[in-house]
Fold these 2 entries.
Entry 1:
Amino acid sequence: MAVTTMIGARIHRREDPKLVTGHGSYVDDLRQVGMLYMSVVRSAQAHARIKSIDITDAGKAPGVVAIYTARDFKTMISGGLPVTESLIADKKYVPNQFPIAETEVVYFGEPVAVVLASERYQAADAAEQVQVDYEPLPVVVDFEKAMQKGSDKAHSDGPDNIAWDVKFPGGDIEAAFKEADVVVKERILQQRVFPLSMEPRVVMANYVPFGNQLTLWTSTQVPHFVRIFLCFGLGIPESQIRVISPDVGGGFGSKLRPYPEEYLAAAASKLSGSPVKWVETRTENLQATTHGRGHIFDIEVAAKRDGTLLGLKVTNLSDNGAYVGVFGALQSALSLFLAPGCYKWKAFDGRTVGILSNKMSTDPYRGAGRPEAAHLVERAVDLVAHELKMDPADVRRKNFPTEKEFPFTNPLGMVYDSGNYAKTLDKAMQIVGYQELRRRQAELRKQGRYLGIGLSTYVEICGVGPSAATDHVSGSISLVESSIVRVHPTGSVTVAVGTHSHGQGHDTTFSQIVADTLGVPYESVQINHGDTSDTPFGYGTYGSRSLPVGGISIYKSCQKVVDKAKKIAAHMLEAAEADVVFDQGRFHVKGSPDRAKTMGEVAFRAHQTGLPDGMEEGLEAVTYFDPPNFTWPFGAHICVVEVDPETGAVDIQKYVAVDDCGNVINPMIVDGQIHGGVAQAIGQALFEEVVYAEDTGQLRTGTLLDYSIPGIGEIPDLELDRTITPSPTNDLGVKGVGEAGTIAASAAVINAVVDALSPLGIKHVDMPASPDRLWKMMQEARK
Amino acid sequence: MKHKVATTVNGRRHEHEVEPRLLLVHYLRDNLGLTGTHIGCDTSQCGACTILVDGQAVKSCTMFAVQAEGKSLTTIEGMAKDGELHPIQQAFWDEHGLQCGYCTPGFIMAASYLLSQNPNPTEDEIRKGLEGNLCRCTGYVNIIKAVQTAAKTMGGAEAKPSERAAARRS
C-alpha cells in the first residue's frame, strides 16, 4: 500500500488525462433530448427607452419555437439579481436588476428578448430579426463626471449616480501629515479589463413541469450560491433545484455570481416545456460577462526625509456600470483595507465612492480589490523613493514590520497572521542580481537606453472568510466551507466538497491531504464537487479560499474519521483507546507495531456488527469550517524591462517572483497558479483595456480583434522561488495562492517602466503601458 | 439546401447532409459528437478549435464543413492510440501545461503540426509556432516546456525525413 507523505509532493494532476484527450465535459459538450437553443437579443443602445419590441418576423423564422420578453419572464421570475449591499454603510442608490430589460435599457448588451429554436443557427438568425424600437436617452460613460451634481443619469428614474460613499478612517491622519517632510500626490488609474476565461459562459436548463424540478448545468465557480438565488427568483424549493457545474474552462472571478441568463434559461425551459441551452459567444462574453477593475485612485502620501512612511490618504472612485456588481462594493472596500500594504503607517484614511454608468457591471476579477491595493501602495512607495532620491528597496525595507512584530495590525484593524517581508525581498533581489542590474542601468542610461527595475512587495488577504471578521459586513453570513469524508466498507474514500475546481487542480491537492491524513492510497480517494445533489453546501471557489477554508474542512473531517476509527481499532485489538497509535494508515498498540489494523480493515469492521457499545455503523464525517482569521500570503516580485526610446515598446527582460503562501501541498500546482496570475497582470499592465465610446456607450473593444490578451510571445520566462512562513490560523499552515501573481505583478511591471523612463522626469505611468501611451509621454517629456 | 460531405475523421469515415454555412467546428461537435474541439471566440483569434486537416493545423471555425469534403481530419480524440497518450499529451500532463483545460486540445493540435514541421524547435520557434493559440490560465511557461519535452521524447519521430532535413537546414 502506497502510504507516503503526499503533502508537499509534486504529484501530477489527476484531472489531466481526460482533459488532454478531449474527454472533458464542459456544459456545451452536454445535451438533452428535445433541447432547444436559446439566443439572447441584446440592446444595441447603452441607454434608451424601449418603445416597442416587434417579434412578428422573428416568430416566422425557420425553427423558431418561442420568443419571450420581460413581460413573459415577469410571470416566472420575481425580485432581482443579488447585491452585497451590507458593505455600503451609507447606502445611496442601488438599482434593482431584473434579468431582462422591460422599459429602459441601461447598458450596451443588456438582454431585451430571447428566442428559442430547434437549432443553434436558427436561434441566432431569428434573434437578428427581432425589431426593437428605442428612444435614446443621455448616455453616462465618464464615471467621474457622473458624480457631479446635475450630471445625466444612468437610470432615468434614479436620484443621481451615486451607489455609495463610505469612509474608512484609520488613525490620526492629520497628525501623520503634520509630521511629514514630504508629501506626494498622484492619480492612479485601474482601467476596466475583461476577465476573459477561455470558455465563455454556457447554461443548460431542464425544468420538469409536473415534479417542479429544475436541473441547471452552468459554467460557474459557485453552484450552491447560484442555486440559492434561483430558488428565490423562480420560487422553486432549493431542494428541487439541482445545479451542476461540470468542467469549467476558467472563471477568474467572472463566474462567481448568478447571471441573468441562468434565470432566463431556467424560466424559458419552464415556459416552453423543453430543455434549453444557451451558449455565450465571445462577443456576448465581452458585452455581458462582468468586467474587472474600473477605478480611479487619488492618493496622498506623507513621509519623513529618511524614508519613514507616515500617512496614506486614498480616495477610490469605482465605476460600477449600470448595476452594482454582486460583489462590487466588497472589492472596492477590499482595495482600501489592503491599501496600507506591508508597511507600518502611522495613519490611513480611505474613502470609496461607487458610481453608476451606462456600462456592464464590474465585479471581481482575479484578486478583486487586492491587485488595486497592491498597485497603488507599491506605486506610492516608489513615488516616495523617487522624491527622496532613495533606492525603492531601501524605502520598503525601512517600513516593513519585522518577523517579530507578527501578528501585525494594519491601520484599518486587519490582523496579518504571519510574515517575513524582508526575507522574500532579499531573496528576490539576490536572484535577479539587483546591484549588478543597477550598475548596468547606469551604464545603459549613458548610451540613451532605458532599462528599468521594478519592485513589488505585496501582502494579500485570503481565506474568505472568518465570521469573526465578516459578520458585520456580510449580514451575518459566515463564509464557511464544507466537506463530507466517507470511507467505504472496502476502504476507498469519497470526499464531497462545497468548493469548485475550474483549473486549480483541487482533485489532486485535496486527495493529497486526504491520503496523508487518513493514511490511505492516494488512488483510492475520489473528490466530488460541482453538483449540488451530491455535495454539501459551500460558497464555492474564489478569493483563494478553497485550500485555507475548504481544504482545512477536509482535513478536519479526516481527523474526525481517524478519531472514530481509532475507537473501532482499539475494540478490534482489544486494547484501551489511549494505547492505540495511528501511524501512516495503521492503528497499532503502543510498543507492538505488529499488532495493527489498517484503515481499510477498520472501515470494513465499521460496517459490520460487533462495534463498541452504542457506536453507530459507518465511517464518515462532516465539517463546516469557519476559520479564526484570514490568511495573509505575501511576496516580492521584481521585473526588469527595457523601453524602446523610439517606439515606446516594452520588453520584459527578466521576471523574478518570490512568493510565500505558507505550507505548500503541491508545488507544481502552486507554481502554475503564480505563472498564470503574473501573466494576467502583465496583460493589464501592458496590453488590456476595455473601451466604451464616450458619446454612445458602445463597446469599442467588442471582439478579440480589438482587445489583446497576452499571447505566447508576450510572456517571458518567469523565475519563481518561495519562502515558507506557515499560517498560524489553520492546521495545515496554508494560506492560498490563486491570486498572488495577479496581485503582485502589475506594480512590478509599471514600477519598472517608470524607473526606465525616470531620466526623462517621468514619475508615473498608467496602465496599459502601451507603446502608444509611452511614445506620447516620451515625446512630451523631451519637449 | 443541404450538401453532402464525406470525411475521414480520426480514421473513421463519416457522411452527412449539411447546410453549406455549417462551420466545420460545429460539424465536429454537434454532428459527430467530437466535443474535445472547443470554441473560445468568434473571430479566429483563440485557436481552441485547432485540428489537423490533411496533416495541416487549421482553426476549424474558419472552414465550412463542406470544405472538408474528401479530407482526412484529426481531432484531439484521435491523438491517443491503443490506450496510450500521444507524447504531446503526455508532455502537457507531465509539465503541468494545462489548468482549466479548455484551450489545451487546440494547443496540442497546433503543437503536433509544429513538431511535424520542425521536430526540434527552439524556444523562439515554439513561441512563433503557437502564436495563434491563446491560454488564460498558464502564462504559457509550462506550455513551452511541454512542447520542448514532447520534442525530446518524440525525437523527430513525427517528421518526414525530408522535413527533418529542411528543419535542420533552417
Entry 2:
Amino acid sequence: MSIINEIISGSPKIRKVYKEQIIEKLSRKQAEEGGDRKFFNQYWQPFAWATIIGFLNDRRIPITDTYDSDVFKYRVINNQSPDILESLIVMAIGKFKKDIQDDKSLLYDTNEITKIIDEYANGGFEIISRKLAKDPDYFYEHNIFIEDLLERKP
Amino acid sequence: MYLTKIVVENFQSYYDSSSINLEKNLNLLLGTIGAGKSKLFNAFYWNFFGEIYKTENGWCTVGSSNFLAVFNKKVLKETQENENIKVKVVLSIKSDKDYTVSRYIEIKKLNDNDFNSEKNWKFINEELVVSFDNSEGNRINIDNHYDARDYIVKKLLPKEISKYIWFQGETLNELIDIGNGKSFKDAINFISYIGYYDKNIEIANELIDKIEKTLRKEKKRDTTNEQEFNKISYAIEDLERKLPSYQESLQNTTIELQQIDKVIDDIDKRLDDINEFIELKNKKEKLDRERKYILEEIEKFDKNISNLFSKHWILYATEALLADGFEKLHSYQKWYEENQNNNPTGLPYNIPDPKYLKEMLDNLKCYICGEKFEKDSKAFLNIENRYKIATGELEEFKQKNKEQLNINNKVIEILSNQSTIKSKVNSIKPDIKSNLTKNAGLNNRKSELLEEISKINDEITILQEKHGNKITANFLLEKNKYNYNIKERDIIKTKIKNLSETIYRLNQELKRKKEELNKIPTKSNVEYKEEKMLTYLYFIQNSYEKTKESEFNKLISKIEDKANDILIKTTKANKVINGKIYIDRDSYIIKLIDLDNLNGNRDINVGHLTLMKMCIINAIVLISNDYKNKSYPFISDAPTSDLDDGTTKLYYKVLDEEFEQSIIMTKDLFTYKDGKNVVNKDALKDFNFKNVYVIEKDGASINLTESNSFSCLKKII
C-alpha cells in the first residue's frame, strides 16, 4: 500500500483547545453566516498552515491532553491539494532521527509520519495561540497572513 | 488694514461664544459641506453691513425683521419663556488705529411655541458700535446706529468696493456681471478719477445748454432774418424737447435689457446647473457601477487569496525542510539499489537449482566443475550452505528483500513528485508578488473611486441645496423661459438700435440746425461773449471726454495686466490656459485671447471663466489698494469651487503673497480617508500654508440637526 493511501484513511490528532480557539476562529464552515471575515475556507487549511509553522520553527510538542481525531481526514487535504499533503509527509520524513535504511520500521507503516505531523502541528498551533493571546484580533486583517508568511527566512 | 480677531456668539451655526485670532497674510478656514464656513462668512459680513447671504435668497438684510435668520437654533430652542438672548459678532481691526466693531441683536422669547417662528419672539434691540482710541488716547464709542454704519462705509470699508473685498463665491456672476455690471462700474469709478470726469462733462453740458439758450435769445434780437431765425429756433427747441424723452426711453430700454440679460443669465446658470446635475448623476452611476465591479473583484480576490495561501503559498520558505526529507528518501533509494541482490553466498540464490545441490551433496561431487570433494570439506559445507539457503533460509531472505522493495516503492512514490513540489515552492514568491500588485491596484482604484464619488456627492448636495431635491423637474419650464426671454431680448435690442439711431439722427439734425442758425447774419455784426464762452466750454467738454476715455483705457489695461499676472501664477500647475484675459472696452465682456492674436476669442469653460473673473476681482482690489494707498483684507467664501486642486492651491499662494491679509473659507484641502473627510495636511505642508483653522460640526452623536449641533473652530496650523 502506498504511503499516501495509508495516510488518507486516517485523521490528524488536534488538541481540542486549538480546534476551538484557532481552527474554528479562523475558518468558516460552509454557508456560515457572517463568516466573511474568516480567512480560511476549510478546517484542513489552518492545520496545514500551523504544521508548517511548527516545522519552520522546529517546534514539536507531543499531544498529552485531550485531542480530537475527528476534525477532518487527511483525504480532504489530498483531494484539495495533494502537493501540500506530500510536502507535509516529506517534511515529516526529514525530521526522522535515523536514516530509513537503518530503521526501516519508520516507513513500514505511516504511524511515525502522522505522529510527527500531528506534533509539529501542535507546536505551530502553540505559536499561533501565543500571538492570539497577545492580540485576539491579530489575524483580523487578512494581510497579516501574507505579511507573516513573507517574514519567514528561507 | 487687517482683522485681528472675530468673536461670534450664538450666530447661526455657532453656539455660545467662539473666537479665532486672525493673522496677516493668508488665513485658511477649512470646513466640509455644512460645517459652518458660509455662516462664519456671514458673521463677518453681518457685523459690518447688517446683511447675510442665503443661497436661496441672495443677500438679505437682518434687523428688526428677519432677525431669527442670524440666531443659533440650539440657543433658540433652549431659551426659556420670557428669557432674553443675544446674537453678537465682534471684529477687531488694525488700521491707522485699533478699531472694534460690535453688532448685536437682542430678542425675548414670548412663549414655548415654535421657536422658528418670529411671532413667538419679541425684537428688543439692535446695536452697532464702532470703538477706537483718539489721538489723546481716549476711547471713542460711536454708538449711534446710523453714525456707526456711516463710519464703517466711509472710513473703514468703502461701499463701492466692499462687495469685491467681501466676496461670496456664489455671487461671482453678480460681481463681474459682464455686459451691464453696475457694480463693476462703481468699482472702476472708485479706484480712478473716471467718476469725476463724468461729473465734469455733465457740468460742461449743462453750461453749454444754458449759454446756447442765452445766446439764441441775444441773437434773436440782433438777427437780420427774424422769420428764418424763429423757424430754425423753434426747430432746435423742438429737437431739444424731443431728445430727452428719446434718451430717457433709451436709458429705460437699456435698463430693461440689463434686467432681461440678468434673467437670461440666471436661467442659463440654472440650466447649466441642471445639466451639470444630470452629468454628475450619470458620472456617479458610472462610478458606482465600477465601484461595485471593483468590490466584487476584491471579494473574489480575497477568496482566491485564501485558496492560494492554503494550497500553495504556505510552502513559502520550506525548501530546506523539504530538502531534508528528500535527502533521506534518496539516501534510502541509493542504499536499496546497492544492496537489493546481496545474499549470504554472494551468488544468485536460485542457481543451481536446490535438487541438483542435493544430488551433489549425496554424490560428493560438484556438477559445475566436475571435481569430487570430501564430506564436511570446505566445498561440501559451501554447497550445503547453498542448499540450506535455497530451501529454508532462502524464504527468509526473500521475505526481507520484499520488505525493502516495499519501502523502496514507497520512497519512489514520494520522490516521483519531487520536481513538481520543488517548482511549486520556487513559484511562490513571484506568484505572491503578482497577486499583491493586483490587489494593491484594486484597492487603490477602490480608494480613488470612493474619493471621486464623495466629491461628486458633495457637488450634487450643493446643487440640491441650491435648487431643491427635484432639481431636474423644471428643466422644460426653464428651457421655455429661456427661449422666451431670448426672443424678448432680441426685440429690446432692436428697440435700442432704433432709439440710438433716432437719437443720433436728432443730434445730427440739432447740430445742423444750430449751424444754420449761426449762419444767419446779425445786424450789429459783433462777437457775443457767450460765443467765446461756448468755444472754451466745447474745448473743456472735449478734453474731459478724451481724458476720460484715455484714463478708462489705461485702467482697464492695468486691471488686465494685474489679472493676467495672477492668471499666470495660478495656472502654473497645468498648461491648459495659454492665453490672456482681455476686457472688451464697450461691453465689459471678458475674453480669453491667444497670446499672439489679439482678435482671438477662445472657448472657455466654467472653470476658466471662474478663474478669470476671480483674477479680475483680485486685480480690482489690489489696484484699489494702490490707488488709495490703503490695504483691505480680502475675505471670501468658496471662491475656488469650480477649480482643480493644483490651481486652487496656487491661487491661495497668490492671495498669500499679494494681499496684506486674506481670509478664505473653503471645502478644498480635504481628502477622503477611511470613510471620512480629513484635512490633507501634506498639501498644507507642500504650500507652506500658515494660519489654518478647521471648522467642524459638534453636538449630538447621531442624527445631527440644526438645533442639537453647532460649529467649532480649531486652529490646526
